[in-house]
C-alpha cells in the first residue's frame, strides 16, 4: 500500500476536495500539510454540500483520523467556527478524530489587519490578490522565529514575553504604515479566550503519524492551493506563502520523505485562476465566461469569480516535474461538452522564440504568448459518466492527448461534483 499525496497541478480550485473525499474511503488518516483557511474545498455527498477551508476533507467521513500538520498556519477562531458549522450539519468532530500539531503557528487579528492593509493598495507595491485572512503575515512571523504557536497557549505564564517579542516587530511596522499600534493586552485576551476551545485538539502529530505509518495505516496527504502558487516554483510574487508542491507533504506533517508514496496531481480539463498574476491561456471573452458559468467558477470561501481559460499543458507539465506527479485526476471534463473545438496550449512564444516551460522572470511571464493546438470537440455528454464506455470517443481522445502533453497518465477522471461520478483507472493506494 502506498501513502498518497494529493496536490493541485494548476493554480488551485481544481476539485481536490472531491478527489480527497473519494480517496479517503480507502485511507485511515487524512493530513493537511500547508496553507491556511484560504483554501476552500467543496464536498458534495449524497446531495449534501460541505464547505471546508481549514479542516482536512476526510473529517466528513466516519472512522477517519484527520490531522492539521505543522506546515499549516492556524486561525484558532476560524477552526472553532468551522468545527461548529460541521457539527450543525451532523458531522462528528472531536479530539478523537481531529488532531492539530502542537507546533502549528497561529494567525492573529494583527495578521489579518496587516494583510488587508497591504491588499488595499495603501501600503505601496502590487496587490497579490490574497484573501486578506492573515496567512502571509503569519508565515512571515514563522520564518522570522517570532510566531506564537499552539503549544504556547498551554503556558499562559509565558505568553507576555512571547507577545512582547512579536510586537517588537509589529509595533514599529504598524506605526510606519500609519496603522494603530497593536495592544498587548488585547492580543493576550484573544489568545487566552480561545485556548480552552482549541487545546483539546492539540497533539504531537508527527509521533501519531509515524506510529500510524509503522502500523501499516494508509495516509492521505492533502495540499491546499496548487503547484503554480508555490512560493518557490509558482508565478512569483503572485503566489501563496508556503510550499504547495508534493515534497512539502513530508516537511509539513513531520514525516520523512520516504513516507510519501504515490503523488496524485489534480487538474481541471481547462484552467482557472483567482486573484492577480499571469495567466497565459486566459479567455476574456464569451467562451471564457461560458466556461465560468458552466463550471460555477466562484471561490468557495470568497465568492470571487475565477478567471477561466483553455487547458495549459505547459504549466501542467511543469507541475508534474516539480511535484513528481505519478498520475493525474482530471476534473470537470463535462464542462467542455458541446464545444465544437477545444484549444490546448502546448508551448509558449517569448521574444519571437518558442519555449516549453514557464520562465521564472515576472516580466517574462507577463509577455509570453500561448501556442495552441486545436482539438475536435464532442457532442455527447460526459456528465455523470462512470466508465470509459460512457464517454464520447472524442472526449477520450482529448484525455489521451492531455496525458501525452503533460507526461503523466490519468488515474482518475471526474465527471461531476458527485463523488460517485468518477472513473477509476488506477488506484493510487495500490501503487
Summarize the structure.
With 431 residues, this protein is of the alpha/beta class. The protein contains twelve helices and 18 strands. The longest helix has 18 residues, at 159-176.
Write up this protein:
The protein has helices at residues 16-24, 76-88, 109-119, 135-143, 159-176, 184-198, 205-214, 248-251, 286-294, 313-323, 362-367, 393-406, and strands at residues 4-8, 29-32, 41-45, 48-52, 65-68, 98-101, 202-203, 219-222, 262-268, 271-273, 307-309, 311-312, 327-331, 341-350, 353-355, 369-376, 410-414, 422-424. The chain is α/β, with parallel strands linked by helices and 431 residues long. Strands 7-6-5-2-8-1-9-13-17-18 form a 10-stranded mixed beta sheet, with helices on both faces. α2 (76-88) runs parallel beside α6 and α3 packs across α4. The longest helix has 18 residues, at 159-176.
